[in-house]
Write a structure and sequence with these properties.
Blueprint: E1 2-3, H1 7-42, H2 48-80, E2 83-84, E3 90-93, E4 111-114, E5 120-125, E6 137-142, E7 145-157, E8 190-197, E9 211-215
Antiparallel strand pairs: 1-2, 3-4, 5-8, 6-7, 6-9, 7-8
Helix pairs in contact: 1-2
């Protein structure tokens, strides 16, 4: 989708590679020193302390090499993050940046709409929920395309909504907040019904489109096209 300027990350990667090469050379030297001290210790030429010092120096060099390799791996990973790929097929929208712009960590640049994740959220009165069951056939039409219906099926019915008077707690981010159409009249609450699309819509779907939904008995056929009366 886009690429972050990789110059700083490439420099860090080069530095990490040099650090690994230096640590490998140091480890080789400490290995040679340990071999020499081992031979001298076995022939009782050097003391045990000198032999142990050589062992400790080799272990320290080995640890430094492991740390340098881990830093190299992290630098390679950071460089790979400069190229941002879309995790799914879809559409880019709400792009708020341009080439060369400076972006702070956490800034939102764009939105990726997954083209395979579209679903319909229909709102039905609580008095209608008894007739709405999962897997029931649904006929839908888009605004402006009322003569081109497409089908779907009921996926699930919400088990709760956010109560506007506050009696249901403050978890408005976890429960759907459905606004009453008339504030001063006590109307049946409306609950979200999630509908899976099984047919082909007449036009590509967009988030926020208005859809008319009719839940049908499973025995009812879905007409392919509704003819306009002359």
């Amino acid at each position: 989708m886009f690429e972050i300027d990789p110059a700083d990350y490439k420099t860090a990667l080069d530095s990490a590679k040099a650090s690994v090469a230096n640590s490998e050379a140091n480890l080789l030297q400490k290995r040679q020193d340990l071999d020499r001290e081992t031979d001298l210790f076995q022939r009782r030429v050097n003391s045990k302390q000198e032999f142990q010092n050589a062992q400790n120096a080799f272990a320290s060099a080995e640890a430094e090499l492991n740390a340098a390799r881990a830093n190299l791996q992290q630098s390679e990973l950071n460089l790979s993050y400069t190229k941002v790929y879309a995790p799914v097929d879809g559409y880019l929208t709400n792009v708020n940046t341009s080439p060369g712009a400076y972006v702070h960590t956490g800034d939102q640049l764009l939105a990726l709409v997954d083209s395979s994740s579209f679903w319909i959220a229909a709102y039905f009165k609580e008095t209608q929920l008894l007739s709405i069951k999962p897997a029931r056939t649904v006929r839908m039409t888009l605004m402006g395309h009322h003569d081109e219906p497409f089908e779907g099926k009921v996926d699930s019915v919400a088990w709760g909504i956010f109560v506007q008077d506050g009696s249901g707690g403050t978890s408005t981010g976890l429960l759907a907040a459905v606004t009453q159409t008339v504030d001063w009249v006590r109307l049946p609450q409306r609950f979200p019904v999630r509908i899976q699309i099984t047919g082909k819509p007449p036009i590509p779907l967009r988030i926020g489109q208005t859809v008319t939904v009719a839940v049908l008995p499973n025995s009812s056929p879905i007409p392919e096209k509704i003819s306009k009366q002359p």
